[in-house]
Design a protein that fits this description.
Layout (H helix, E strand, L loop, with lengths): L2 H14 L4 H8 L3 H9 L6 H11 L3 H5 L5
Helix pairs in contact: 2-3
Amino acid sequence: MDNDLLAQRIRAFRKLKGFTQQELAQRLDVSVAVLGSLERGTRKPDPKLLSSIADTLGIDYNELIRISGS
């Protein structure tokens, strides 16, 4: 998956669920810098972290990583 598309999806789901970057980073036990770099698409996402993000946001992992139209 394209990092930019995934970054947009992470940010969109985070905002949809009402989390700030700081709140989500705390729940994930990562720094705000790590989460921010994921949301900017400058960090290659670790599947384990993506799974934790999906769980914390209450969404299915496949929904998080899905590209529109696929």
